[in-house]
Each structure stands twice: as structure tokens, then as C-alpha cells.
């Protein structure tokens, strides 16, 4: 990623344009991630938490919670540092699809595509339409969807 605007932390609405793609680092999903997520979310469905039962099921092993994958995608995008300073509010998650299971040992990374850029009706902020594509180590798309974000405009000089 080239940042002619300065460091990613210095980005504002004016620095984004349709067609930009930001790629994250990878993160390996562990069994501990899945167990921890099950504990704090209270989602202890056996497909996530019972290795013996899950082993006889459709995927042959426990799978990560879908929302765990979404959370990791958001976290990976956050680590880019591009949206941190300028973020005002997450606007929604639309059309999120779970297209392939994520299992312990998968290393996932995320591409964030800027698909729309527009000023708010009062002009004091901007809206970024972003398409997230989460892939595993084989390049298989495991999850994807749109996540809109309201961001700050550059302060007047």
C-alpha cells in the first residue's frame, strides 16, 4: 500500500477513493480462539465445541463461529491503522456471507475494498462503503460482506 498522504494514521475522508484495496496481515485461528469465543459469547454449539461430535459431522472437525471470523476481519482491518484516527461510527454490516468454514490452524487475512466514497448530507463527515473479503491460507474466500463507516473530514488548515 502506498500512502502519499503520510502515515496511515493521518488519513481522513479526503484520502480515500473508490478502487483502493488495503490488505491486512495474516492471523492464525487457534483452538483456544474458538474455545474462548464460545465461552464469552455463550455460543457452545457442539459444531464449535465438541471435537468428537463435530468429527462425525459435515466438516469433520470443529469449526470457528462465523461471528468470530467477522470479528477477526474487523480486527485485522483495524491493525492497518488507516481507519483508526478518522473513524466516527460503524454504520452497519450488510450482505455478510459465510462461504467456507474456518477451522483451527487456518491463517486468515482480509482485503478491504473501498467501493464508495461520499460526503454526509451536512458535509461535516464522509461515508466509506467498504467490501471486506476474508480469505484463508489457500486463497479461499471464507467470508465477505459490506461494512460501512462514517469518517472524519480533514480539519481546516
Automatic annotation (TrEMBL):
PANTHER family: BETA-METHYLMALYL-COA DEHYDRATASE, MONOAMINE OXIDASE-RELATED. Residues 18-122 form the MaoC-like domain. This is Acyl dehydratase. Belongs to the enoyl-CoA hydratase/isomerase family. InterPro entries: HotDog_dom_sf (IPR029069), MaoC-like_dom (IPR002539), MCH/BMMD (IPR052342). The lineage of its organism: Bacteria, Bacillati, Actinomycetota, Actinomycetes, Micrococcales.
Amino acid at each position: 500500500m502506498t500512502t502519499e498522504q503520510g502515515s496511515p494514521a493521518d488519513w481522513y475522508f479526503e484520502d480515500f477513493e473508490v478502487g483502493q484495496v488495503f490488505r491486512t496481515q495474516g492471523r492464525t485461528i487457534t483452538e483456544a480462539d474458538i474455545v474462548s469465543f464460545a465461552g464469552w459469547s455463550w455460543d457452545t454449539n457442539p459444531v464449535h465445541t465438541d471435537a468428537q461430535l463435530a468429527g462425525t459431522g459435515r466438516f469433520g472437525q470443529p469449526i470457528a463461529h462465523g461471528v468470530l471470523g467477522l470479528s477477526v476481519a474487523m480486527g485485522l482491518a483495524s491493525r492497518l491503522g488507516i481507519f483508526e484516527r478518522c473513524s466516527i461510527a460503524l454504520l452497519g454490516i450488510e450482505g455478510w456471507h459465510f462461504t467456507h468454514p474456518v477451522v483451527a490452524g487456518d491463517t486468515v487475512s482480509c482485503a478491504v475494498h473501498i467501493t464508495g466514497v461520499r460526503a454526509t448530507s451536512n458535509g461535516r463527515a464522509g461515508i466509506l462503503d467498504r467490501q471486506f473479503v476474508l480469505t484463508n491460507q489457500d486463497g479461499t474466500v471464507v467470508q465477505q460482506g459490506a461494512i460501512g463507516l462514517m469518517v472524519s473530514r480533514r480539519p481546516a488548515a
